[in-house]
Amino acid sequence: MLVGVEGLDVADEAFSAFVAARQRELVRLGWALTGDRQLGEDLVQTALLQLWPHWSRVAAAGEPFAYTQRIVINLWSSWRRRRWRTERLDASPPDSSGGDVAIEAQTRASLDGWLARLPRRQRAVLVLRFVCDLDVGETADRLGCSTGTVKSQTSKALRTLRANVESVGSFAEEASS
Q1: Rg for the chain, CA atoms, rounded
Q2: What is the share, in percent, of the chain residues with pLDDT greater than 90?
Q3: Distance between CA atoms of 53 and 143, rounded to whole angstroms?
Q4: What is the rounded CA–CA span in Å between residue 151 and residue 140?
Q5: SS3 sequence, 63-112?
Q6: What's the farthest any 2 CA atoms get from each other in the chain?
Q7: Does residue 28 carry a pLDDT above 50?
Q8: Cα angle value 47/105/151 (rounded, 5°)
Q9: Residue 1: what pLDDT?
Q10: pTM, 2 dp
């Protein structure tokens, strides 16, 4: 953190403090949206670069984290429309929480795979609702849509995921017999 460094003004210090406090959550959002840790970090870095010139105004408005989440989602959405393809050499290990790292990595890879099967809007809704733990109203605000849209997209996404899980389960049963 750059607190107390000569030559930095209050806005610089406030921005540095914001990044230090919220970077982990933003990277988790970027990772969940993209399905790739490094691409998620790139997404957040790009969002922070876009935020910086407007930091004083955004901070004065009172909700810089929500505003930054919105930037991340909008950037991700535009990246998806461009159909950028990246190589995925290896999944990076998740942040260790003291549990079994191998199980956590396998769970994360499974979650990334399931989320990747969803349409863009449904994936964003699930990530905001269940990974970022936002309520329906906050999710609607971040996506710029109505609460009814959030509810219907959540329902459709969960239905799709359930159908995929059931089809994989029945395929696995057929293959083992």
Answers
A1: 18
A2: 38
A3: 22
A4: 9
A5: CHHHHHHHHHHHHHHHHHHHCCCCCCCCCCCCCCCCCCHHHHHHHHHHHH
A6: 71
A7: yes
A8: 55
A9: 36
A10: 0.60
User: Of 105, 159, 154, which Cα lies nearest the Cα of 127?
Assistant: 154
Q: What digits encode the pLDDT tens for the residues 44-90?
A: 999 999 999 999 999 999 889 999 999 999 999 887 555 444 444 44
Of how many residues is the chain composed? 177
Which has more confidence, 91 or 70? 70
Write the CA distances from 76 to 32, 85, 128, 157, integer angstroms: 11, 13, 13, 18
Helix (H, G, I), strand (E, B) or coil at 34: helix
- Model confidence at 110: pLDDT above 80: no
Pull the structure tokens for residue 7. 């030559």
Tokens 């994936």 map to which residue? 123
Architecture of the 103-177 domain: Orthogonal Bundle (1.10)
